[in-house]
Amino acid sequence: MVDGSDLETPELKKSMSMTATPTTRVLATIAVGASLVMLLLALIVSPADVVQGDAVRMLYIHVPSIWVAYGSFGLTACTSGLFILRYKRRADRGRHYDRLAGAAAEVGVVFTGLTLFSGMLWGKVTWGSYWQWDARLTTTVLLFVTYLGYLALRRLPADPGVRAKRAAIMALVSFVNVPIVHFSVDWWRTLHQKASLSVGRRPEITGDMYWTLMYSALTFTFVATWLMIHRYRVIRLEEMRDEELLLQQLRERRSENSL
Q1: Which of 82, 99, 182, 102 shows the shortest CA–CA distance to 148?
Q2: The dihedral formed by the CA atoms of 179, 185, 189 and 191, expressed in degrees to the nearest 10
């Protein structure tokens, strides 16, 4: 019986001990510092809302979370399309796009979960209940579940190329729900408020609230980028481990056949 832990070369063991580099450490420092400043702006500098009071401060978590999720799923769709186009020509580039798609999807799922959680807390204050089967909420849950299914598909045992192609196709199909989630408040009657910021529409918020929201979105983007880089590297290390396991199994099979 071959144990994957026994197959790790010294180089692989060393690389698996950490996924950080000087660049990602700098990015992490920026992300932590920016997060602290964001908390200061959100809790102290930004004023309470006339109607919602201090509950409006959930805005600085809820809205940037879904923006990051949209961007992550968009990146998953783009890199999945590139995988389909490039894999037959250059397998190494194709695998790079597949890893990036997987890492982006994982980050998107995390931030979609944060969107739902913060939205439930906000809804309890403004609507009196944690959940309503509202068009925006329902489509967001569907988006969350769909990408959980995408991540599950990536874990199914299969030939790596075949599995990656199936996942790429599912990623492209799943992305159709992103614009549905975003425009659901415009297409259907819903309890959820209209978008605070939208192209071609006057912003619903101004002043310190506006700039705090913009800064929060930038901070969440830094955090998401940092997470995505690490997840990409972890996926690559998992592939290295699996390749080493396969090679060892082939060597043992050849040794058995030669006896």
Answers
A1: 102
A2: 130
Note whether 4 and 16 are within 8 A (CB).
no
H/E element holding 225?
Answer: helix 207-258
Distance CA 35, CA 33 (A): 5
Taking CA atoms, 154 is separated from 166, 204, 240, in Å, by 8, 40, 16
Report yes or no: 206 and 182 within 8 Å, Cβ to Cβ.
no
Which residues make Cβ contacts (< 8 Å) with residue 27, sequence separation at least 6? 222, 225, 226, 229
The verdict on pTM exceeding 0.85 is no
Rounded distance between C-alpha atoms, residue 89 and residue 153, angstroms? 24
In angstroms, the CA 137 to CA 132 distance is 7
Residue extents of the structural domains in the chain: 24-44+56-239
pLDDT digits 0-9 by tens, 97-147? 999 999 999 999 999 999 999 999 988 888 888 888 888 889 999 999 999
